[in-house]
Amino acid sequence: MVKRTSIESSIFSPAMERIDKLLKKLSEADAVTGTEARIHEIIRGELSGFADRIDSDPFGDIIAHKPGREKGSALLCAHLDEVGLMVREVEGGYIRVVATGIDVRILPGQVVKILVEPPIHGVIGIKPPHLTTKEERDKVIPIKDLFIDTGLSEEELKRRVKVGDSVCFHAPYQKLQGELRTGKAFDDRAGVVSALEVFRQVDPYYDLYLILSAQEEFSGLGATIASYRINPDLALVIDVTHAPHPDQPEYRAFPLNKGPVIGVGPTLNRDLYERLKAIAKELEIPYQIEPLPRNTGTDADSIAFNREGIPTALLSIPLNYMHSPVEVVSLRDIDRTVRLLISFFSHRPWK
User: Fold this and answer.
1) Which residues of the chain have pLDDT under 70?
2) Is 239 annotated among the ligand-binding residues?
3) 176: number of Cβ within 10 Å
4) Residue 323 among known ligand-binding residues
5) How far is CA 339 from CA 56, 102, 255, 282, 335, in A?
């Protein structure tokens, strides 16, 4: 009997090196909800030579197509946008903002970038503890009281920054231990990296449409419109889910380095769920299962409920500290997601 060689035997494979470089490039790019076109050029460059058609739409989606071997259509989706802030007012040399998906608790003391041309860096100022009352120290500062200090004069700020301009975290991509990386916008650039790698490598059974969607963090508008237009026979969404940290309930946490997380619930198609599990077992890819008894909170909802209903599956990558500038992900989990989905889209997905 020939001993089977593990495909995960190497500590850091060439595939993970590619994933590492691409995740860094996309994490350090900036595309707050509504400004996804800022990274379209990067995405088009990554898809060049691998698609017979690459389109964009007025809502910020990128849509690519790759012909399949058999009649039918499948859709692969991950979202481009990241959480951020929006300029509310320029006041006395400072910028006041409103949040678009960010947890206000983490904002004081953060370094941010105002997405104008050229970008302006600033810091979210905070009153020193020496000058605060006990009551102030014990409560979360309302976002209406926060401000961005750029060091520019009020006149210069008002010339360059307008109400409605977007603001994002400024956070470098950094290596932690082993395959772990930290940075901003891994929700859902980790999914975008996975989708790009799958699309580039797969020889699809059905025509494969790739949607890198806009506005997932706000309304799901991008995935709704693009999937309505394509009307595929089936769809699969890649997003992120919560990894464990202290004081978090175990049932809501999925460890890093333990493989992708397959969603199961009434919104998601049971046959596709079973197919993903079967492929993972066949390829000896570790996986986890996330029960989702209501909506999924992802683009899977926008797609599954579209038209007469589109059979949809959800595959998530475990992520720590979601919607922060220090999100943490495992490159190995991304690599496993890619290998699982290459097999999924390479073969007939239905029994």
Assistant:
1) 1-11, 351
2) yes
3) 12
4) yes
5) 27, 32, 19, 12, 6
